[in-house]
Amino acid sequence: MPTVRDATFDLFRAHGMTTMFGNPGSTELPMLADFPADFRYVLGLQEAVVVGMADGFAQASGKTTVVNLHTAPGVGNAMGAIFNAQANHSPLLVTAGQQVRAQITLQANLTNRDATRMPHPLVKWSYEPPRAEDVPLALAHGAHLAGLPPRGPVFVSLPMDDWYAEVDAGDVQAAIDRRVTARATADPEAIRALAAALDAAANPVLVAGPDIDASGAWDLGVALAERQRLPVWATPATGGNRLGFPEGHPNFRGFLPPAIGPVGQTLEAHDLIVVVGSSVFPYYPYIPGPLLPQGAKLVAITSDPDEAVRAPMGDAIVADVKLTLEALLAAVPESTRPVPEPNPQPQEIPPTDPLSPSTVHTALGEVLPEDGIVVLESPTSTLALRNQLRLSRPGSYYFAAGGGLGFGLAASVGVQLAEPDRPVVCVLGEGSAQYAISAFWSAVAYKTPVTFLVLQNQEYGILKWFAEAEGASGAPGLDLPKLDVASVAEGYGVKAHRAGDRDGVREALSKALASSQPELVEVPVTPGMVLF
Ligand SMILES: Cc1ncc(C[n+]2csc(CCOP(=O)(O)OP(=O)(O)O)c2C)c(N)n1
Hints:
By secondary structure, the chain is α/β, with parallel strands linked by helices. It has 20 helices and 18 strands. The chain has a six-stranded parallel sheet with strand order 2-1-3-4-6-5. A six-stranded parallel sheet has the order 9-8-7-10-11-12. A six-stranded parallel sheet has the order 14-13-15-16-18-17, sandwiched between helices.
Protein backbone atom coordinates (compact mmCIF):
# COMPACT_ATOMS: atom_id res chain seq x y z
CA MET A 1 0.00 0.00 0.00
CA PRO A 2 1.30 3.49 -0.75
CA THR A 3 2.06 5.83 2.14
CA VAL A 4 0.66 9.33 2.62
CA ARG A 5 4.07 10.57 1.56
CA ASP A 6 4.13 8.55 -1.71
CA ALA A 7 0.60 9.69 -2.48
CA THR A 8 1.45 13.34 -1.76
CA PHE A 9 4.44 13.46 -4.06
CA ASP A 10 2.50 11.59 -6.79
CA LEU A 11 -0.28 14.15 -6.43
CA PHE A 12 2.15 17.09 -6.66
CA ARG A 13 3.76 15.45 -9.72
CA ALA A 14 0.38 15.02 -11.42
CA HIS A 15 -0.34 18.73 -10.90
CA GLY A 16 3.10 19.75 -12.20
CA MET A 17 3.96 21.11 -8.75
CA THR A 18 7.54 19.85 -8.55
CA THR A 19 9.15 23.09 -7.33
CA MET A 20 8.54 23.60 -3.62
CA PHE A 21 9.52 26.64 -1.55
CA GLY A 22 10.21 26.16 2.14
CA ASN A 23 12.01 26.77 5.36
CA PRO A 24 12.21 23.55 7.35
CA GLY A 25 11.93 22.72 11.02
CA SER A 26 11.76 19.44 12.89
CA THR A 27 8.01 19.21 12.21
CA GLU A 28 8.62 19.24 8.43
CA LEU A 29 11.56 16.83 8.23
CA PRO A 30 9.45 13.64 7.96
CA MET A 31 7.86 15.05 4.81
CA LEU A 32 11.18 16.13 3.34
CA ALA A 33 13.16 12.96 4.14
CA ASP A 34 14.49 11.18 1.02
CA PHE A 35 13.30 14.10 -1.06
CA PRO A 36 12.44 12.81 -4.56
CA ALA A 37 15.09 13.54 -7.19
CA ASP A 38 12.58 14.94 -9.68
CA PHE A 39 11.51 17.68 -7.23
CA ARG A 40 13.28 20.97 -6.55
CA TYR A 41 13.31 22.40 -3.02
CA VAL A 42 14.01 26.15 -2.89
CA LEU A 43 15.18 27.23 0.55
CA GLY A 44 14.33 30.68 1.87
CA LEU A 45 16.00 31.78 5.09
CA GLN A 46 12.89 33.42 6.52
CA GLU A 47 9.24 32.61 5.81
CA ALA A 48 8.35 36.01 4.29
CA VAL A 49 11.05 35.25 1.74
CA VAL A 50 9.77 31.70 1.17
CA VAL A 51 6.23 32.87 0.40
CA GLY A 52 7.42 35.92 -1.57
CA MET A 53 9.57 33.71 -3.82
CA ALA A 54 6.68 31.26 -4.27
CA ASP A 55 4.32 34.13 -5.09
CA GLY A 56 6.63 35.36 -7.86
CA PHE A 57 7.10 31.81 -9.15
CA ALA A 58 3.37 31.04 -9.13
CA GLN A 59 2.46 34.24 -10.96
CA ALA A 60 5.20 33.96 -13.57
CA SER A 61 4.70 30.22 -14.19
CA GLY A 62 0.91 30.34 -13.89
CA LYS A 63 1.12 27.15 -11.79
CA THR A 64 -0.19 26.44 -8.33
CA THR A 65 2.92 26.31 -6.18
CA VAL A 66 3.65 24.39 -2.98
CA VAL A 67 5.00 26.19 0.07
CA ASN A 68 6.16 24.32 3.17
CA LEU A 69 6.46 26.29 6.40
CA HIS A 70 7.46 25.48 9.95
CA THR A 71 4.50 25.11 12.35
CA ALA A 72 3.07 28.21 14.20
CA PRO A 73 6.10 30.57 14.20
CA GLY A 74 6.84 29.83 10.54
CA VAL A 75 3.26 30.57 9.55
CA GLY A 76 3.38 33.68 11.72
CA ASN A 77 6.46 34.98 9.91
CA ALA A 78 4.79 34.31 6.57
CA MET A 79 1.53 36.15 7.21
CA GLY A 80 2.42 39.47 5.54
CA ALA A 81 3.59 37.64 2.43
CA ILE A 82 0.43 35.48 2.39
CA PHE A 83 -1.56 38.73 2.54
CA ASN A 84 0.35 39.91 -0.55
CA ALA A 85 -0.25 36.59 -2.34
CA GLN A 86 -3.98 36.91 -1.74
CA ALA A 87 -4.02 40.45 -3.17
CA ASN A 88 -1.94 39.25 -6.13
CA HIS A 89 -4.33 36.35 -6.85
CA SER A 90 -1.34 34.07 -6.58
CA PRO A 91 -2.21 30.35 -6.42
CA LEU A 92 -0.28 28.92 -3.47
CA LEU A 93 -0.79 25.64 -1.64
CA VAL A 94 0.70 26.67 1.71
CA THR A 95 1.44 23.75 4.03
CA ALA A 96 2.92 23.77 7.53
CA GLY A 97 4.10 21.01 9.81
CA GLN A 98 2.26 20.26 13.05
CA GLN A 99 3.03 18.28 16.25
CA VAL A 100 2.41 14.52 16.17
CA ARG A 101 -1.30 13.86 16.61
CA ALA A 102 -0.81 12.16 19.99
CA GLN A 103 0.68 15.38 21.43
CA ILE A 104 -1.59 18.05 19.94
CA THR A 105 -4.21 17.84 22.70
CA LEU A 106 -1.62 18.18 25.45
CA GLN A 107 -0.08 21.08 23.52
CA ALA A 108 3.45 19.75 23.42
CA ASN A 109 6.14 22.15 22.30
CA LEU A 110 5.70 23.28 18.65
CA THR A 111 1.99 22.51 18.62
CA ASN A 112 0.19 24.90 16.30
CA ARG A 113 -2.72 25.22 18.76
CA ASP A 114 -5.27 26.69 16.44
CA ALA A 115 -3.57 25.93 13.17
CA THR A 116 -6.47 26.61 10.82
CA ARG A 117 -7.54 29.86 12.48
CA MET A 118 -4.10 31.42 12.23
CA PRO A 119 -3.93 32.28 8.49
CA HIS A 120 -7.71 32.12 8.07
CA PRO A 121 -8.57 35.63 6.86
CA LEU A 122 -5.76 35.56 4.32
CA VAL A 123 -6.53 32.26 2.58
CA LYS A 124 -9.40 30.78 0.61
CA TRP A 125 -9.47 27.63 2.71
CA SER A 126 -7.71 26.59 5.90
CA TYR A 127 -7.72 22.95 6.98
CA GLU A 128 -6.13 20.27 9.13
CA PRO A 129 -7.14 16.75 8.00
CA PRO A 130 -8.86 14.76 10.77
CA ARG A 131 -6.94 11.54 9.94
CA ALA A 132 -3.57 10.81 8.37
CA GLU A 133 -5.30 8.95 5.53
CA ASP A 134 -7.12 12.17 4.58
CA VAL A 135 -3.93 14.12 3.86
CA PRO A 136 -3.70 13.35 0.10
CA LEU A 137 -7.35 14.25 -0.51
CA ALA A 138 -6.99 17.44 1.55
CA LEU A 139 -3.92 18.44 -0.45
CA ALA A 140 -5.77 17.66 -3.70
CA HIS A 141 -8.63 19.86 -2.48
CA GLY A 142 -6.18 22.66 -1.69
CA ALA A 143 -4.33 22.36 -4.99
CA HIS A 144 -7.57 22.57 -6.99
CA LEU A 145 -9.00 25.42 -4.94
CA ALA A 146 -5.85 27.59 -5.06
CA GLY A 147 -5.97 27.48 -8.85
CA LEU A 148 -9.68 28.22 -9.26
CA PRO A 149 -10.80 31.83 -9.74
CA PRO A 150 -10.20 33.95 -7.87
CA ARG A 151 -6.79 32.32 -7.57
CA GLY A 152 -5.12 32.65 -4.20
CA PRO A 153 -3.42 30.95 -1.28
CA VAL A 154 -4.93 28.05 0.68
CA PHE A 155 -3.52 26.50 3.85
CA VAL A 156 -3.21 22.87 5.03
CA SER A 157 -1.72 21.94 8.42
CA LEU A 158 0.05 18.56 8.36
CA PRO A 159 0.77 16.60 11.58
CA MET A 160 4.30 15.30 11.37
CA ASP A 161 3.45 11.65 12.09
CA ASP A 162 1.09 11.32 9.12
CA TRP A 163 3.63 10.71 6.38
CA TYR A 164 4.13 6.96 6.76
CA ALA A 165 0.49 6.01 7.31
CA GLU A 166 -0.80 3.74 4.56
CA VAL A 167 -3.54 4.80 2.17
CA ASP A 168 -5.74 2.91 -0.25
CA ALA A 169 -4.06 2.87 -3.69
CA GLY A 170 -7.37 3.12 -5.58
CA ASP A 171 -8.62 6.08 -3.55
CA VAL A 172 -5.33 7.88 -4.01
CA GLN A 173 -5.31 7.29 -7.76
CA ALA A 174 -8.86 8.59 -8.03
CA ALA A 175 -7.81 11.79 -6.23
CA ILE A 176 -4.70 12.16 -8.37
CA ASP A 177 -6.61 11.68 -11.63
CA ARG A 178 -9.17 14.41 -10.97
CA ARG A 179 -9.09 17.65 -12.96
CA VAL A 180 -11.29 20.59 -12.01
CA THR A 181 -11.63 23.35 -14.59
CA ALA A 182 -13.33 26.66 -13.99
CA ARG A 183 -12.66 28.99 -16.89
CA ALA A 184 -16.30 29.99 -17.00
CA THR A 185 -17.73 31.83 -19.99
CA ALA A 186 -19.87 34.91 -19.51
CA ASP A 187 -23.62 35.03 -19.89
CA PRO A 188 -24.11 35.56 -23.68
CA GLU A 189 -26.83 38.12 -22.96
CA ALA A 190 -24.40 40.19 -20.86
CA ILE A 191 -21.85 40.07 -23.69
CA ARG A 192 -24.46 41.15 -26.27
CA ALA A 193 -25.54 44.05 -24.05
CA LEU A 194 -21.96 45.19 -23.47
CA ALA A 195 -21.12 44.92 -27.18
CA ALA A 196 -24.19 47.01 -28.05
CA ALA A 197 -23.32 49.59 -25.38
CA LEU A 198 -19.76 49.83 -26.69
CA ASP A 199 -20.95 50.28 -30.24
CA ALA A 200 -23.44 52.96 -29.23
CA ALA A 201 -21.13 54.89 -26.89
CA ALA A 202 -19.84 58.26 -28.04
CA ASN A 203 -16.55 58.18 -26.12
CA PRO A 204 -15.88 54.84 -24.42
CA VAL A 205 -12.65 53.98 -22.61
CA LEU A 206 -10.95 50.78 -21.51
CA VAL A 207 -9.33 50.34 -18.09
CA ALA A 208 -6.90 47.41 -18.18
CA GLY A 209 -6.08 45.41 -15.05
CA PRO A 210 -3.70 42.67 -13.98
CA ASP A 211 -5.99 39.72 -14.70
CA ILE A 212 -5.66 40.40 -18.44
CA ASP A 213 -2.04 39.27 -18.22
CA ALA A 214 -2.70 36.53 -15.66
CA SER A 215 -5.45 34.97 -17.81
CA GLY A 216 -3.38 35.08 -21.02
CA ALA A 217 -5.63 37.69 -22.66
CA TRP A 218 -2.92 40.25 -23.57
CA ASP A 219 -3.47 40.17 -27.36
CA LEU A 220 -7.25 40.20 -26.95
CA GLY A 221 -7.14 43.41 -24.87
CA VAL A 222 -5.04 45.04 -27.59
CA ALA A 223 -7.37 43.76 -30.33
CA LEU A 224 -10.45 45.12 -28.51
CA ALA A 225 -8.85 48.55 -28.01
CA GLU A 226 -7.83 48.69 -31.67
CA ARG A 227 -11.12 47.45 -33.09
CA GLN A 228 -13.18 49.76 -30.91
CA ARG A 229 -10.62 52.64 -31.06
CA LEU A 230 -10.54 52.82 -27.27
CA PRO A 231 -8.12 54.92 -25.30
CA VAL A 232 -6.73 52.70 -22.53
CA TRP A 233 -5.85 53.49 -18.92
CA ALA A 234 -4.08 51.05 -16.63
CA THR A 235 -5.63 50.37 -13.25
CA PRO A 236 -3.88 52.51 -10.54
CA ALA A 237 -0.17 51.70 -10.42
CA THR A 238 -0.17 51.33 -6.65
CA GLY A 239 -2.72 48.49 -6.77
CA GLY A 240 -1.99 46.55 -9.95
CA ASN A 241 0.29 43.54 -9.58
CA ARG A 242 0.68 43.07 -13.35
CA LEU A 243 0.19 45.11 -16.50
CA GLY A 244 -2.96 44.69 -18.56
CA PHE A 245 -1.95 46.56 -21.70
CA PRO A 246 1.30 47.44 -23.52
CA GLU A 247 2.42 50.81 -22.20
CA GLY A 248 4.13 51.71 -25.50
CA HIS A 249 0.93 51.18 -27.52
CA PRO A 250 -0.45 54.36 -29.17
CA ASN A 251 -3.85 53.89 -27.46
CA PHE A 252 -2.27 53.77 -23.99
CA ARG A 253 -3.01 56.89 -21.95
CA GLY A 254 -1.23 56.13 -18.64
CA PHE A 255 -2.36 54.74 -15.31
CA LEU A 256 -5.32 55.97 -13.32
CA PRO A 257 -4.68 57.90 -10.12
CA PRO A 258 -5.41 55.76 -7.07
CA ALA A 259 -8.12 57.83 -5.35
CA ILE A 260 -11.89 58.22 -5.81
CA GLY A 261 -12.16 61.89 -6.82
CA PRO A 262 -9.13 61.89 -9.15
CA VAL A 263 -10.32 58.69 -10.93
CA GLY A 264 -13.67 60.35 -11.62
CA GLN A 265 -11.90 63.46 -12.94
CA THR A 266 -9.47 61.49 -15.12
CA LEU A 267 -12.34 59.65 -16.80
CA GLU A 268 -14.28 62.90 -17.41
CA ALA A 269 -15.81 63.05 -20.90
CA HIS A 270 -16.18 59.27 -21.19
CA ASP A 271 -19.70 57.93 -21.32
CA LEU A 272 -18.81 54.23 -21.02
CA ILE A 273 -15.95 52.82 -18.94
CA VAL A 274 -15.12 49.16 -19.51
CA VAL A 275 -12.85 47.78 -16.78
CA VAL A 276 -11.19 44.45 -17.53
CA GLY A 277 -9.39 42.22 -15.03
CA SER A 278 -9.25 44.68 -12.12
CA SER A 279 -11.08 45.57 -8.97
CA VAL A 280 -13.03 48.84 -9.21
CA PHE A 281 -10.65 50.31 -8.08
CA PRO A 282 -7.65 49.75 -5.79
CA TYR A 283 -8.09 53.18 -4.16
CA TYR A 284 -5.65 54.72 -1.65
CA PRO A 285 -5.34 57.38 -0.24
CA TYR A 286 -8.89 58.62 0.47
CA ILE A 287 -9.69 61.60 -1.70
CA PRO A 288 -13.48 61.73 -1.95
CA GLY A 289 -15.41 62.94 -4.97
CA PRO A 290 -17.90 61.69 -7.53
CA LEU A 291 -17.16 58.02 -8.32
CA LEU A 292 -17.70 58.55 -12.04
CA PRO A 293 -18.25 61.46 -14.39
CA GLN A 294 -21.87 62.61 -14.55
CA GLY A 295 -23.95 60.20 -16.64
CA ALA A 296 -21.11 57.74 -17.31
CA LYS A 297 -21.76 54.00 -17.16
CA LEU A 298 -19.20 51.43 -16.00
CA VAL A 299 -19.03 47.70 -16.71
CA ALA A 300 -16.34 45.55 -15.12
CA ILE A 301 -15.25 42.11 -16.32
CA THR A 302 -13.62 40.08 -13.54
CA SER A 303 -13.12 36.44 -12.63
CA ASP A 304 -13.38 37.37 -8.94
CA PRO A 305 -16.95 37.47 -7.57
CA ASP A 306 -15.77 39.45 -4.55
CA GLU A 307 -14.19 42.12 -6.75
CA ALA A 308 -17.48 42.25 -8.66
CA VAL A 309 -19.75 42.72 -5.66
CA ARG A 310 -17.66 45.09 -3.56
CA ALA A 311 -17.30 47.74 -6.29
CA PRO A 312 -19.12 50.93 -5.24
CA MET A 313 -20.57 51.61 -8.70
CA GLY A 314 -21.23 50.16 -12.14
CA ASP A 315 -22.20 46.70 -13.36
CA ALA A 316 -20.02 43.61 -13.43
CA ILE A 317 -19.71 40.41 -15.44
CA VAL A 318 -18.13 37.57 -13.47
CA ALA A 319 -16.34 35.22 -15.87
CA ASP A 320 -12.96 34.26 -17.20
CA VAL A 321 -11.32 37.41 -18.57
CA LYS A 322 -9.79 35.75 -21.62
CA LEU A 323 -12.94 33.92 -22.70
CA THR A 324 -15.03 37.03 -22.10
CA LEU A 325 -12.73 39.23 -24.17
CA GLU A 326 -12.82 36.62 -26.95
CA ALA A 327 -16.62 36.67 -26.94
CA LEU A 328 -16.79 40.46 -26.74
CA LEU A 329 -14.33 40.86 -29.58
CA ALA A 330 -16.44 38.57 -31.75
CA ALA A 331 -19.54 40.62 -30.94
CA VAL A 332 -18.27 44.16 -31.63
CA PRO A 333 -17.78 45.69 -35.09
CA GLU A 334 -14.77 47.71 -36.26
CA SER A 335 -15.56 51.18 -34.91
CA THR A 336 -15.62 54.31 -37.05
CA ARG A 337 -14.71 56.51 -34.06
CA PRO A 338 -11.51 58.55 -34.55
CA VAL A 339 -8.31 56.75 -33.53
CA PRO A 340 -7.18 58.02 -30.08
CA GLU A 341 -4.42 60.64 -29.98
CA PRO A 342 -1.01 58.93 -29.82
CA ASN A 343 0.49 58.34 -26.41
CA PRO A 344 3.15 61.05 -25.69
CA GLN A 345 6.82 60.02 -25.33
CA PRO A 346 8.34 59.77 -21.81
CA GLN A 347 9.53 63.11 -20.42
CA GLU A 348 13.30 63.57 -20.39
CA ILE A 349 14.46 64.76 -16.92
CA PRO A 350 17.67 66.89 -16.83
CA PRO A 351 20.52 65.13 -14.94
CA THR A 352 21.04 66.11 -11.29
CA ASP A 353 23.62 65.17 -8.66
CA PRO A 354 22.68 62.86 -7.05
CA LEU A 355 20.56 61.50 -9.88
CA SER A 356 16.80 61.71 -9.87
CA PRO A 357 15.15 58.24 -9.79
CA SER A 358 13.65 59.24 -13.16
CA THR A 359 17.10 59.47 -14.71
CA VAL A 360 18.00 56.08 -13.23
CA HIS A 361 14.88 54.60 -14.82
CA THR A 362 15.68 56.27 -18.15
CA ALA A 363 19.08 54.57 -18.00
CA LEU A 364 17.39 51.28 -17.14
CA GLY A 365 15.06 51.72 -20.11
CA GLU A 366 18.08 52.17 -22.38
CA VAL A 367 19.61 48.81 -21.44
CA LEU A 368 16.62 46.64 -20.53
CA PRO A 369 16.17 44.02 -23.28
CA GLU A 370 12.79 43.78 -25.05
CA ASP A 371 11.89 40.63 -23.12
CA GLY A 372 13.06 42.06 -19.78
CA ILE A 373 10.92 41.64 -16.66
CA VAL A 374 10.71 44.27 -13.93
CA VAL A 375 9.79 43.42 -10.34
CA LEU A 376 9.15 46.73 -8.62
CA GLU A 377 9.26 47.85 -4.98
CA SER A 378 10.57 51.40 -4.91
CA PRO A 379 7.64 53.39 -3.55
CA THR A 380 8.62 56.99 -4.42
CA SER A 381 9.62 56.02 -7.95
CA THR A 382 6.80 53.62 -8.89
CA LEU A 383 5.12 56.17 -11.15
CA ALA A 384 8.39 57.41 -12.64
CA LEU A 385 9.40 53.88 -13.58
CA ARG A 386 6.10 53.17 -15.29
CA ASN A 387 6.26 56.52 -17.10
CA GLN A 388 9.86 56.08 -18.25
CA LEU A 389 9.87 52.40 -19.22
CA ARG A 390 6.59 51.79 -21.03
CA LEU A 391 6.80 48.01 -20.59
CA SER A 392 4.96 46.35 -23.44
CA ARG A 393 5.25 42.58 -23.29
CA PRO A 394 3.04 40.18 -21.36
CA GLY A 395 4.54 38.85 -18.13
CA SER A 396 7.01 41.72 -17.87
CA TYR A 397 5.98 43.39 -14.62
CA TYR A 398 5.24 42.26 -11.05
CA PHE A 399 4.29 44.44 -8.09
CA ALA A 400 2.71 43.79 -4.66
CA ALA A 401 -0.96 44.66 -5.12
CA GLY A 402 -1.42 44.46 -1.34
CA GLY A 403 1.40 46.92 -0.66
CA GLY A 404 3.25 44.73 1.87
CA LEU A 405 6.97 45.40 1.60
CA GLY A 406 9.22 42.36 1.18
CA PHE A 407 7.48 41.10 -1.93
CA GLY A 408 9.87 42.66 -4.45
CA LEU A 409 13.22 41.19 -3.52
CA ALA A 410 11.83 37.73 -2.78
CA ALA A 411 9.41 37.58 -5.72
CA SER A 412 12.13 38.52 -8.20
CA VAL A 413 13.99 35.31 -7.31
CA GLY A 414 10.82 33.27 -7.85
CA VAL A 415 10.04 35.03 -11.13
CA GLN A 416 13.57 34.33 -12.39
CA LEU A 417 13.24 30.64 -11.42
CA ALA A 418 10.02 30.46 -13.44
CA GLU A 419 11.45 32.47 -16.36
CA PRO A 420 15.08 31.34 -16.60
CA ASP A 421 15.47 32.68 -20.15
CA ARG A 422 14.24 36.23 -19.55
CA PRO A 423 16.30 38.93 -17.84
CA VAL A 424 14.74 39.96 -14.52
CA VAL A 425 15.46 43.36 -12.96
CA CYS A 426 14.31 43.96 -9.39
CA VAL A 427 14.03 47.68 -8.58
CA LEU A 428 14.09 48.37 -4.84
CA GLY A 429 14.11 51.23 -2.38
CA GLU A 430 16.82 50.66 0.21
CA GLY A 431 14.12 50.53 2.91
CA SER A 432 12.00 47.97 1.04
CA ALA A 433 15.01 45.70 0.52
CA GLN A 434 15.27 45.11 4.29
CA TYR A 435 11.94 43.24 4.57
CA ALA A 436 13.23 40.27 2.57
CA ILE A 437 16.96 40.90 2.73
CA SER A 438 17.93 37.22 3.04
CA ALA A 439 16.45 36.52 -0.41
CA PHE A 440 19.90 37.58 -1.65
CA TRP A 441 21.13 34.27 -0.25
CA SER A 442 18.52 32.29 -2.24
CA ALA A 443 19.35 34.26 -5.40
CA VAL A 444 22.99 33.18 -5.04
CA ALA A 445 22.26 29.62 -3.92
CA TYR A 446 19.96 28.89 -6.88
CA LYS A 447 22.06 30.87 -9.39
CA THR A 448 19.18 33.13 -10.35
CA PRO A 449 20.78 35.96 -12.34
CA VAL A 450 18.48 38.73 -11.13
CA THR A 451 19.77 42.28 -11.58
CA PHE A 452 18.96 44.20 -8.38
CA LEU A 453 18.76 47.97 -8.79
CA VAL A 454 18.68 49.68 -5.39
CA LEU A 455 17.75 53.36 -5.12
CA GLN A 456 19.32 54.89 -2.04
CA ASN A 457 17.51 58.07 -0.94
CA GLN A 458 18.31 57.67 2.79
CA GLU A 459 14.67 57.84 3.84
CA TYR A 460 11.26 56.24 3.84
CA GLY A 461 10.48 58.77 1.12
CA ILE A 462 6.89 57.77 0.41
CA LEU A 463 6.01 58.08 4.10
CA LYS A 464 7.33 61.65 4.12
CA TRP A 465 5.09 62.32 1.11
CA PHE A 466 2.11 60.77 2.92
CA ALA A 467 2.94 62.74 6.09
CA GLU A 468 2.68 65.94 4.10
CA ALA A 469 -0.51 64.85 2.33
CA GLU A 470 -2.10 63.85 5.67
CA GLY A 471 -0.88 66.97 7.48
CA ALA A 472 0.93 64.63 9.90
CA SER A 473 4.15 66.51 10.53
CA GLY A 474 6.80 65.52 13.06
CA ALA A 475 6.51 61.70 12.77
CA PRO A 476 9.67 59.88 13.92
CA GLY A 477 11.34 57.00 12.09
CA LEU A 478 11.29 58.26 8.51
CA ASP A 479 15.04 58.66 7.91
CA LEU A 480 17.41 55.86 6.91
CA PRO A 481 20.90 57.35 6.95
CA LYS A 482 23.75 55.28 5.47
CA LEU A 483 21.88 52.06 4.81
CA ASP A 484 24.39 50.21 2.65
CA VAL A 485 22.46 47.50 0.80
CA ALA A 486 25.39 46.86 -1.55
CA SER A 487 27.65 45.74 1.32
CA VAL A 488 24.92 43.61 2.88
CA ALA A 489 24.28 41.94 -0.50
CA GLU A 490 28.01 41.29 -0.87
CA GLY A 491 27.84 39.50 2.47
CA TYR A 492 25.30 37.12 0.96
CA GLY A 493 27.56 36.58 -2.09
CA VAL A 494 25.94 39.00 -4.55
CA LYS A 495 28.40 40.97 -6.69
CA ALA A 496 27.66 44.68 -6.14
CA HIS A 497 28.35 47.79 -8.22
CA ARG A 498 28.00 51.37 -7.04
CA ALA A 499 27.12 54.03 -9.61
CA GLY A 500 26.49 57.77 -9.36
CA ASP A 501 25.94 59.15 -12.87
CA ARG A 502 23.79 58.14 -15.79
CA ASP A 503 26.60 56.53 -17.83
CA GLY A 504 27.83 54.70 -14.74
CA VAL A 505 24.33 53.37 -14.02
CA ARG A 506 23.90 52.25 -17.62
CA GLU A 507 27.28 50.54 -17.65
CA ALA A 508 26.76 48.77 -14.31
CA LEU A 509 23.28 47.64 -15.31
CA SER A 510 24.58 46.31 -18.64
CA LYS A 511 27.24 44.28 -16.83
CA ALA A 512 24.72 42.92 -14.33
CA LEU A 513 22.23 42.05 -17.09
CA ALA A 514 24.91 40.16 -19.02
CA SER A 515 25.98 38.16 -15.97
CA SER A 516 24.86 34.63 -15.27
CA GLN A 517 24.89 35.40 -11.51
CA PRO A 518 22.77 37.77 -9.42
CA GLU A 519 24.36 41.23 -9.35
CA LEU A 520 23.34 44.47 -7.69
CA VAL A 521 23.65 48.12 -8.69
CA GLU A 522 23.25 50.68 -5.91
CA VAL A 523 22.60 54.31 -6.87
CA PRO A 524 22.30 57.30 -4.52
CA VAL A 525 19.25 59.33 -5.63
CA THR A 526 17.53 62.58 -4.74
CA PRO A 527 14.93 62.17 -1.98
CA GLY A 528 11.21 62.75 -2.51
CA MET A 529 8.43 61.52 -4.76
CA VAL A 530 8.99 61.49 -8.54
CA LEU A 531 6.15 61.23 -11.01
CA PHE A 532 7.78 61.21 -14.47
C1 LIG B 1 5.38 45.16 5.61
C2 LIG B 1 5.28 46.64 5.51
N1 LIG B 1 5.69 47.41 6.53
C3 LIG B 1 5.62 48.75 6.44
C4 LIG B 1 5.09 49.34 5.32
C5 LIG B 1 4.93 50.85 5.25
N2 LIG B 1 5.80 51.44 4.21
C6 LIG B 1 5.31 51.73 2.99
S1 LIG B 1 6.44 52.42 2.00
C7 LIG B 1 7.60 52.40 3.22
C8 LIG B 1 8.97 52.98 2.98
C9 LIG B 1 9.73 52.37 1.86
O1 LIG B 1 11.01 52.94 1.83
P1 LIG B 1 12.00 52.75 0.64
O2 LIG B 1 11.97 51.36 0.15
O3 LIG B 1 13.33 53.25 1.03
O4 LIG B 1 11.38 53.59 -0.56
P2 LIG B 1 11.03 55.14 -0.74
O5 LIG B 1 9.71 55.39 -0.09
O6 LIG B 1 12.12 55.92 -0.06
O7 LIG B 1 10.98 55.30 -2.21
C10 LIG B 1 7.11 51.81 4.37
C11 LIG B 1 7.91 51.59 5.60
C12 LIG B 1 4.63 48.49 4.29
N3 LIG B 1 4.08 48.95 3.18
N4 LIG B 1 4.76 47.14 4.40
